[in-house]
Amino acid sequence: MNPALHFYNVRLSEREAWLGTMIAASFNALGMLLEVALLQKIPGVSARPAVLSGLVGLMLLMVLFSRRNTPSVEWASVLYMVNTGSVVTALLLTNLQFAASDLNWEPFQASKLGCLIAAMVAPGFWVGLLSILAHCLGALVQFEFFLAAEMKTNIAAAEPWPIIAFGLAGILALVYRFRRVLLEQEVARIQAQNFAIKRLANAFLNIRDLMNTPLQVIEFAVDELRNSNELHKTTLDRIERSVQILTEINSLLVQHEKEIEWQSK
Amino acid sequence: MTQAPARIVFLDDSEDLRQLMQILLKSTLGVECSCFGSLREFERHSDEVLHARVAILDINLGPEAPDGVDAFNWLMDHGFSGKIVFFTGHARSNPQVVRAQGKGAEILEKPLRPDKLISTVTRYLEAA
Fold this sequence. Notes:
The complex is a heterodimer of chains A (about 260) and B (about 130).
Chain A: H1 14-39, H2 48-66, H3 73-101, H4 109-121, H5 125-146, H6 149-154, H7 161-226, H8 233-257
Chain B: E1 8-11, H1 15-29, E2 33-36, H2 39-44, H3 46-50, E3 54-57, H4 68-77, E4 83-88, H5 95-102, E5 106-109, H6 114-127
Parallel strand pairs in B: 1-2, 1-3, 3-4, 4-5
């Protein structure tokens, strides 16, 4: 199977996952602050869900910021889901009130935005997918079962297709993002492998160069001994020194042996 | 009495190899071979070196030291007219050595059997 299709198994770096969750928490805190400001002009919609969700976002942001030096993908995913849960709940609690109180209400705008933000910043593929589905399906269920028929006709005539379209767009963007990360990781892996191979090749060339001189000394010394009737102590010493050098080179080779990664799979 | 210039000069950083080369060339060809361990020594004996008919050069002359290609360039710059032979372990792929080959240098790869070295050097001496 093409490795590029395994994008769903991609693991982001700890820092990247942490940063994504921080951005999502910031969106929650700031977005809900804006929502509270907006609610001042719309009577009949409770500000409490937005305030609570914003506070959750702020607390998560503080935790994430204080632990930024020890990031973890697992914790980033957990905190991201807490943040998503808080936002989706706040939106579901206020959507019907908006529909009843604000004649200009554009249905599920925040949920649609949530689908796209999840695609951009989710700390993992499955967490991102779950988040998009929570935004999309939450709005869909609310539209189908909790919105009055009159409101459906007057305010949300085009729904549910726009929210489904945003959900699909979010999923496609999420797939594209993680596929790109997978390719980047693959390129980085190949570059590292090339670097290691070049280093090893250079080491072997140097070792070969170091080995050839003592081998040549042995070759000449043996020839000298063969053509002489006497046993020259100096020649034997030369052979011994060359063997010593070769032994030292062998220990160098043992060090490089550890760098070789046997890929039997 | 002045000594006749050596017909062969040999540049290599291994003292054992230098001595064995001298013994080998003297015993088989009866030719004097002057040996040097560095380019500096080579330069110091420039008269002798530049009058030789064959110069055999190792490439790697030790860490940080000028190498055999530097010696080749020095010989070319000083109008050396004999044959230049690189006697090396792995430098066949070195681009500088390949360039030197284009200028007429030969490459002999270590380790080389003595009879092969002798026949090659004989050929160069006859051609020089």
